[in-house]
Design brief:
The complex is a heterodimer of chains A (195) and B (101).
Chain A (H helix, E strand, L loop, with lengths): L1 H18 L3 H21 L3 H26 L10 H6 L2 H14 L15 H8 L1 H22 L6 H9 L8 H21 L1
Helix pairs in contact in A: 1-2, 2-3, 6-7, 8-9
Chain B lengths: L2 H22 L3 H25 L3 H33 L4 H6 L3
The chains are: A mainly alpha (195), B mainly alpha (101).
Chain lengths: 195, 101
């Protein structure tokens, strides 16, 4: 019963995280969901998973989200829905809830004779060694793709020359700069030859 | 209803809230947040399954894998969100879908 209370609290925090318009508050609500999740995991006799969940979920992911918000900026989206659309917005929640309850409850009987025989570290590092290796590969590939995505774009020399001579204004996009610079490329070559 | 079924009821509610957010929000960062909520519901479902089958240690090792995969999804998604914002100047998923028309 206490776990249900904790999970209902987590669901409330999750609803707040989705509904609030302030993105930083939304991240804080998500960190609360993570904290409550880790408490539930602890009460379910899974302390190792609980520690990793709170350090990664409330720590790393929250920091990443704040970093992304600080770069991308807080952009608030406005909905101009009609009354019918507002009512229909809650339809998926009720449908998914009822469908999952219909599928999952009552729970099937568990088969006897499948008890754990090893510790957490033995299972993770020996029985599931291949999975751990794959996790390391996933982490490395994610870091590499992150560096690739966040790296600064190197523009052609002609574009850089043009951008340095004429600073970007709001009306001129980067593609327009590239187009103009391509037109000016022969002129630049003549200038270089004269120099 | 026993204790496991009540916990699973809470998991279903949390999962539904995540799906609700995923279906209804148009903000790209909010979509990542909704994915995180769904991941947390799945983690607790694994822990309940481990408790029921008395294989908590195996469930814990699987949960670690889920947390790693979920975090990497968040990292890549947020990097893509930053790129979308810098190139297209919006965080609205509806405006991105308009590009196809």
């Amino acid at each position: 019963m206490d776990k249900l209370g904790l999970l209902l609290g987590a669901a409330f925090c999750a609803i707040q995280a989705i509904r609030t318009t302030n993105l930083l508050l939304s991240v804080l609500w998500l960190a609360s969901v993570s904290a409550l999740t880790s408490i539930v995991l602890f009460t379910l006799d899974a302390p190792n998973a609980a520690v990793i969940e709170i350090s990664v979920g409330a720590g790393l992911v929250a920091v990443l989200l704040v970093f992304a918000i600080s770069i991308a900026g807080e952009e608030t989206l406005h909905n101009h829905d009609t009354l019918w659309k507002k009512i229909l917005r809650h339809f998926p929640l009720i449908t998914v809830l009822l469908l999952l309850l219909w599928i999952l409850l009552p729970l099937p009987e568990t088969q006897p004779g499948l008890k754990d025989t090893a510790t957490f570290s033995t299972i993770l590092w020996e029985d599931r060694a291949l999975d751990v290796l794959l996790q390391i590969v996933i982490i490395f590939s994610a870091v590499l793709s992150l560096l690739g995505l966040l790296a600064d774009q190197k523009l052609p020399a002609a574009v850089q020359h043009y951008a340095a001579s004429r600073p970007l204004d709001e009306a001129t996009s980067l593609t327009e700069h590239v187009a103009i610079a391509e037109d000016e490329e022969p002129i630049l070559e003549v200038e270089r030859e004269l120099a | 209803m026993n204790d496991e079924e009540l916990t699973l009821l809470g998991v279903v509610i949390l999962f539904s809230v995540g799906v609700y957010g995923l279906l209804l929000t148009h903000h790209l960062i909010k979509i990542v947040i909704a994915l995180q909520i769904i991941g947390k519901a799945v983690i607790i479902a694994f822990a309940v399954a481990g408790t029921m089958s008395e294989r908590v240690q195996l469930a814990q090792s699987l949960i670690v894998t889920i947390i790693v995969a979920d975090t990497m999804v968040a990292v890549i998604s947020l990097a893509l969100v930053i790129q979308v914002k810098q190139r297209l100047g919006t965080l609205d998923a509806r405006e991105l879908s308009n590009l196809r028309r």
